[in-house]
Amino acid sequence: MPASQEFAVVVASWFDGERRHAVGPSTFIVRDGRVADIAAGDHSAALRGSGLAVQHGAFLMPGLVDAHVHLFLDGASTDLTARSAHLKQPLEGLLQAARDSARQSLACGVTLVRDAGDRHGINHQIRAEARLPGSAMAQVRSGGMGIKRAGRYGGFMAQDVQDAPSMREAVRALALDSDEIKLILTGIIDFDAGAVTDEPQFTLEETTELVASAAECGRKTFAHCSGAKGLAVAAAAGVGSIEHGFFMSADILRRMAEKNIAWTPTFSPLHFQWAHPEALGWSAQTVGNLRRILDQHAEHLAMATGLGVKLLLGTDAGSMGVAHGHAVVDEIARYLEAGLSLEQTLSAATFNARRHFGLAHATLAVGAPFNALLLAQDPWVQLDALRSTLQVWSGALEDAS
Ligand SMILES: [Zn+2]
């Protein structure tokens, strides 16, 4: 049994995951990796007198959560040839890339990521490695391999199913190791057309069955889904969360609010392609389509907030131009541009995900694991303070049981 570890952190203001506290300094006592006490005022003199180490900073908040990443992909790479060569390397190379992604995430203050799928199950292995003491990696909630219709989009992150028995069997097998079941419900956006042009991969009946099979195994689903047809299926089937969700509508958002379906809008990959059209050789017309899609997405994000849809902030890190860890602050900027408050945005990047994932402690509170970031400035004063954390404590987040 290691000796009791105790220290104090004194900050001018802080955010608990839902609310900012800025009425004066606060003193946090951390004992054995947990918040033992939060007291109003700066008690550093008395604590130092009793021999306790005291750390000072401007601002404390829960560790960030990126609710949609692909650890095995390198988002910083923007060269198409290099990206396709990356995917063809031996498994060990992809594993190393995933380790680097998890380390980079933590260094950026992202203490937890939800991996949205890879074909090799690399995310499961990194989840196990991240739990080892001293891993210096973000913890991983792993979607394992996703489920897709044979012959359709998603081969890099999902396995094929065809008929109802193979769907049930796939869900049961995946649920043994996957924290959530990833469904590839639609293809990707055709940017030249400015629309999702293919039919959903699964019917409403099939999707309802997949969601029910996952629930029987105690698992939520998260669905890759964009376009009106796919979104109607996802909302009616009651998936756990809709990922991406481009071409959203007020009607779908209302149904999501009623059924407590979360939304992870992932602005970052499209925003990169809009800002850097040369990377993919997009025409002026396609750039116009991207801008229109992003603007509509922002309008729907603001609408979702008004309707009470649960938002999970996710970047799709690993996509072209979306670097693990760093992208979270960019995604935060997209939420603010859409008119959300910083409190709503940081809740989506901390508390909402923890609660949606069923973790025992969703906020920074007495009794919670000390999973927190110390910043040199209050992000309400200077947003870029989020880009340079003074210190990250990655106290293990536990499932509620
Ligand atoms: Zn993704």
Question: Any overview of this molecule?
Answer:
- The chain is an alpha/beta fold and 401 residues long.
- It folds into two domains: 6-62 and 363-394, Urease, subunit C, domain 1 (Roll); 64-349, Metal-dependent hydrolases (TIM Barrel), CATH 3.20.20.
- 35% of the residues lie in helices and 22% in strands.
- The protein is built from 13 helices and 16 strands.
- The protein has helices spanning 44-49, 80-88, 91-107, 122-130, 164-175, 204-216, 228-237, 250-259, 268-275, 284-307, 327-337, 342-348, 351-356; strands at 6-15, 20-21, 26-31, 34-40, 53-62, 64-69, 110-115, 139-142, 146-149, 158-161, 180-184, 220-225, 241-244, 262-264, 371-375, 389-394.
- The strands form four sheets. Strands 1, 2, 3, 4, 5, 15 and 16 form a seven-stranded mixed sheet that branches. A four-stranded parallel sheet has the order 11-12-13-14.
- Helix 7 (228-237) links the parallel strand 12 and strand 13.
- Helix 5 (164-175) runs parallel beside helix 6 (204-216).
- It is globular.
- The chain starts with 5 loop residues before the first strand and ends in a 7-residue tail after the last strand.
- Residues 68, 70, 116, 316 line the site of zinc ion.
